[in-house]
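Why should sequence recovery work at all? Because a backbone constrains its sequence more than one might expect. Tight turns favour small or flexible residues, buried strands favour hydrophobic ones, and helices have their own preferences. The token representation captures these environments compactly. In the example below, the structure is given first.
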């Protein structure tokens, strides 16, 4: 067998395979003999049909079937004779065979592209230094109070912090219910403006069991196309959210390590600050990776992209069985390409810059996870001892090292801003 290899794209290889006629014809002769041995034909004893009759009647079909089986065997053999590892089985084309001529075909398959990382000197970005203001701390305290609030029955809706449970039936313009458009047991809190100021106002003074019509102007459309939505609201339950006092006792209920309300404020400021700093660091790394992707050509093999999107879709379908495949693929294509390009760049960088995780690093991370994870240490150790889970730890360490490496190569300036400004920028 003669195998020639040509790399037609950064991610595509074409094999040209030539099998000597003598080898092919032996396989074909065996196929005819096997068929003759098991054939029956009127006028002949089983297995005694003359070969000339078999070839005349069934020769083309037997030859085609044998060629289809043989080409798969030849393809596997050819793959073992060359250096590339296919990402998927590939495509057979230009199959050719005949009397006294070699059995030839071409096979095209996709491979992982080689990537050489350049452009470290162009890694220029900033890191947000975020100031946490008092109103952010107060908002955090209010959220803690809200989480710890008690719900007590109320006779009617009187103002903020009243929680209303209701059914909502959409109507047409004539007041006839639209059967397919109904919400059951919807819940809102007055003051949060979940359905707008006007809806909150419409609920004021209402009691359990009250029914009333409500007309909502859908603001999602342009002025000349604004649409009115007609609804019948049935109030089913009203409760008042009773918030705890902001005092030392409340602070102590949040954590046994907190003793005063001032301790809680300081701890909350540290928590918000740490979260914001973590998000800022993540955004900084995203910008640096964007630069690497821009400066290094990375062609993503189509089969690799398809496989990635298929796995995303399988996961999404667990929550949404009616997912539309075409829409999902289109909506997630760009993020999938970004993730795959970063994967290939990171993989190349780890090799190129010698950033591989060694056994000692993996073991140290392994022990850290066991210590931090609640549960039986023996069970946790067994789980992370499995090869795929251990490999996941290795991948996490190597990604962290890759990010630390590009950070060390980058020119990073500090950019001071408030927490509100950071949120506005997408933080």
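From this structural description, the recovered sequence reads:
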């Amino acid at each position: 067998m003669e195998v020639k290899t040509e790399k037609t794209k950064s991610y595509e290889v074409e094999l040209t395979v030539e099998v000597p006629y003598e080898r092919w014809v032996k396989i074909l002769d065996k196929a005819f003999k096997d068929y003759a041995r098991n054939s029956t034909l009127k006028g002949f004893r089983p297995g005694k049909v003359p070969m000339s009759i078999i070839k005349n009647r069934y020769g083309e079909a037997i030859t085609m079937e044998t060629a289809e089986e043989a080409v798969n065997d030849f393809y596997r053999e050819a793959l073992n004779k060359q250096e590339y590892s296919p990402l998927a089985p590939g495509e057979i084309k230009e199959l050719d065979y005949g009397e006294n001529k070699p059995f030839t075909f071409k096979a095209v398959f996709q491979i992982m592209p080689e990537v050489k990382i350049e452009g470290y000197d162009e890694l220029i970005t900033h890191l947000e230094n975020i100031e946490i203001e008092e109103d952010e701390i107060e908002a955090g305290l209010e959220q803690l109070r809200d989480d710890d609030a008690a719900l007590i029955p109320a006779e009617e809706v009187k103002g903020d912090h009243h929680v209303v449970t209701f059914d909502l039936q959409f109507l047409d313009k004539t007041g006839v219910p639209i059967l397919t458009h109904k919400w059951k047991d919807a819940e809102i809190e007055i003051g949060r403006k979940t359905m707008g100021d006007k809806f909150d106002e419409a609920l004021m003074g209402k009691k359990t069991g009250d029914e009333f019509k409500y007309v909502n102007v859908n603001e999602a459309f342009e002025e000349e196309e604004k649409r009115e939505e007609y609804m019948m609201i049935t109030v089913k339950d009203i409760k008042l959210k009773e918030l705890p006092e902001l005092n030392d006792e409340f602070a102590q209920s949040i954590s046994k390590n907190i003793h005063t309300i001032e301790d809680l404020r300081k701890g909350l400021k540290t928590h918000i600050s740490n979260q914001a700093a973590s998000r800022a660091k993540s955004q900084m790394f995203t910008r640096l990776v964007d630069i690497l992707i821009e400066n290094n050509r990375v062609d993503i093999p189509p089969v690799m992209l398809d496989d990635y999107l298929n796995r995303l879709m399988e996961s999404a379908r667990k929550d949404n069985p009616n997912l539309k495949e075409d829409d999902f693929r289109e909506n997630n294509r760009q993020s999938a390409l970004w993730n795959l390009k970063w994967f290939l760049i990171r993989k190349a960088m780890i090799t190129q810059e010698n950033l591989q995780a060694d056994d000692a690093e993996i073991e140290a991370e392994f022990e850290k996870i066991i210590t931090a994870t609640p549960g039986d240490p023996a069970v946790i150790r067994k789980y992370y001892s499995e090869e795929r889970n251990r490999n996941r730890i290795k991948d996490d360490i190597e990604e962290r090292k890759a990010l630390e490496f590009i950070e060390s190569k980058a020119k990073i300036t500090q950019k001071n801003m408030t927490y509100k400004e950071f949120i506005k920028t997408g933080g």
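A few observations help interpret the result. The chain has three domains: 2-110, 150-242, 249-424.
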